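Dear colleagues,

As part of the handover before I leave the project, I'm documenting each prediction I ran so the next person doesn't have to rerun anything. This entry is a single chain, and its sequence is reproduced below.
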Amino acid sequence: MNKIRVLPEILANKIAAGEIVERPASVVKELLENSLDARCDAVHISVMSGGKRLIRVRDDGEGMSQDDAILAFEHHATSKLQSADDLGSIATLGFRGEALPSIASISRLTLKTRDSAADSISGTEIEIQGGILRSVKPASWDKGTEITVRDLFFNVPARRKFLRSNDTELGHIARLVTHYALAHPEIRFTLESEGRVLIDAVAVSGIKERIYQVFGDGFLNNLVEMCGQAGSVRVSGFCSQPHEQRTNAYSQFFYVNRRMVRDKVLTSAVRQAYRHCIPASAYPVVILFLELPFDQVDVNAHPAKTEIRFRDQSTVHRLVLESIGRALTKSSAIPMYEHGSQKESVTRYSEASPFIPANSPVQAENLFNLTSPAASANPFQRALNYPFREPTGESASRKEDHASLRILPDMLIQSPIEEKHSFQPGAMRILGQLQDSYIIACDAQGLLIIDQHVAHERILYEKLAKAMLSRTVETQGLLVPISLELPPHQIALLERVMPELNASGFQVEPFGGNSVLIRSVPAVAGEADYRQLLSEILEGLEIGERTLDVDKIRDRIAVSTACRSAIKVNTPLAAEKMQWLMDHLAQTRIPTNCPHGRPILLRFTIYEIERNFGRI
């Protein structure tokens, strides 16, 4: 008996489907691409239970004849390739001929279509269940194609149980439709879930109008237009000013010849363009369109067709990097200085020491070395003996970036770590403020510098976190409710976290379309920008959506609320207020670090001071 045998066709189809269909959004992607290739003017997507129960995609494109409709469910049957030479210059979104048979093998699928160019007065309806053709019959149909996918993975239960919650899957679908709507502003996109319209983007003349439709004018106002060209490669789109930051990469949209892609070359170019503008943990907003000859890019690198390869990666990387840099410079987002000019307003620093001008004869190691060898592994020790960080030209005016950092579990109130710190406010003498941002104090051990914003953030975080655990959060009603427009995928996420938001002092309710009303906030939020606060909470939750639970939701709400509500830098404080901060900071569980792990206190001991002054 032979050990090697050919797999049954149905089993082979299920295996192939595993490469293409990861979740309901994968089905929507494949069907959307077919609709766009069919040159439609409008496409309507309807889902139920996050796409697990039903996905329906209808377009008004070219449609198919009965023979073509039947043949489309054969593996590797496609109208988009004629010969092997065509693989080197693919101009369509779909081309493999694998999507429909793979989807049909793991669902109950119904297709209705009519070839608008044919003389037939009726269309065709095809039903397939688990890859088995059940019926082919004439159907009354006007124009285009409609594909209905029910009970995804009904015959592959092992795959079905790996799907996430309905809201999470719906969020992926909404994000996907948003991507395609941005790439094709000339086409109308509608997304409906459980009978409620999440996206209704009518056809418009350009990308600016589409951005306004999907995200609102507040989003567009913080973007700058970019463009550039190198030979036959052209880049265009929008990028955000440095102060507009996100906590994840969900607001980065990359398109190559209007194909939605994920690509390390483009990601690297964007990261380098912003490396001196925003924290390493933050992400800019980028909507980037790259156009180049079809034979200069390989889109056949991955079954899902989202990963690509450029023939000339260096040209693409350099073009994107320079185009974003020019756009930011033109918008006055990055100050420009002429090297060697007498009008130069920023001193250049040497690599050896960021605190010594490049033309100084003094060597860095002979002047400042305040970092002990032990100040490394322990985050609490780092806080009390922290190395200087390199200053940058924009550091004095940069907005607080704590919200863009990852929350560290060890720094949360539920952490099992018992902090042992040497912070004794009773023995401390406050000397004053530095740049209206840092409290300067001294005690028997030496000199202390306290970041007033992060200190207040820790105080507010622990106060709110304890109140949330005991369900005793004080709320503050708003005299005039505040409206906020959210991206479609965040609307789905908002519904998921609404119970915890309400229990945390927020009262948020739908206000039609993608708008919500904020009626109340936690009392500790004070005069914070409530729109930014709610948006930041939702952005932060998106990072951990695969393992999102009640504790993570509470932590994100508490951390974001504390960060937005805390005393800002460049705020003068009276001596009484500084003493109040120190007294309340001493009562916190972890007074040395904020929930992101950033230090609240820097200590320079008497020994270090005397050593660097040459006294010992």
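The first helix runs from residue 9 to 20. The chain has a mean pLDDT of 80.

All the best with the project,
I.
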